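Next comes a single protein record:
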Amino acid sequence: MVSLRRKIIRDPVHGYIPLEATDLPIIDHPCFQRLRRVRQTGAACVYPGATHTRFEHSLGVMFLSERIFHALVDQEPFRACPGEEKASLLRTLRCAALLHDVGHPPLSHLGERLMDREELSGAFRRELARFGLEIDPGDALNHEVASCVVALREYGDYLKGLGVDLELFCRCILGAVDRHAGLERYVVQILNSPIDADKLDYVLRDAAMTGADLVALDRDRIISAYCAHGGWLTLSSKALSTVTGLVHGRNALYAWVYNHHAVVYTETICERYLLHLREKHPAVQQLFSLDGIVQGGSDDTDVWAVMKSWAGSDTLSRWDLTPGSFALDGRRSGRFLPKPLTTFTSLCGIRGRVT
């Protein structure tokens, strides 16, 4: 009998995304709902349509991860795997994909640079110990470690009750491939590798939502091209033209969206402004802490509110962001980050004028 709680979400990029009844307690949790208020990129200053969030991105990654997994199950070595084991691997992969960004701080990757790595490492070790796990995060990104901490702290018991392998769950988020593992190696790489579902979703989603028209990619063809070969997730040479489109599309997004001079400039100004605020008011760091994310539900709107509240203050109304640069004018508190019109050689190490 089909559960009455099974739902379908209409996604602007992937169409209809089916949700299982077991997904709903995860999605309905305040930690996951917070992602509705954390934008995927900082590109909206150039591309006004780029207001999409980590919420729909997480749903998209879950959808693509499951599609890629099903593309592999008829291949060796998955073909010889018992059906129950396949179901267990898929269950763990779905949950990891859904929660892979649950600990992401506000302001996308700008906020990630303001997180305290020492705090994250300590919390990560404590959560692992609570479930009797030992995993080396290695060079995992701050938001990946934070997502593992938040997931184990807020969802750990629920996930364990579902039969999720918590060690594999964390490895998927961190990209920690165990060289001695079997099929788990491939499952980790579906979510975290050079050709993972995370990257595939953000390439498709960011291209669509910015309207930059930079990516021409056949999603279904590239999913069918995934192969399990020699312990590594690969793409078949038979889909070379589609793979080339993925590479070129990703490079184009970095050139024209993520590294657009105005995007880089604006994010750098915001970062320096927040660092300045943090020196004067240490409580600002709380917005990028684990407690702020979990208990306070900090998101983009909270950070913008803090910056706006100080934009017209006596202490910051004439704050020089860089020597010889402009001053933050309190009279423009309604739009306290002026349009980039200044040389930012000292800011980014790039010569030239931002216009």
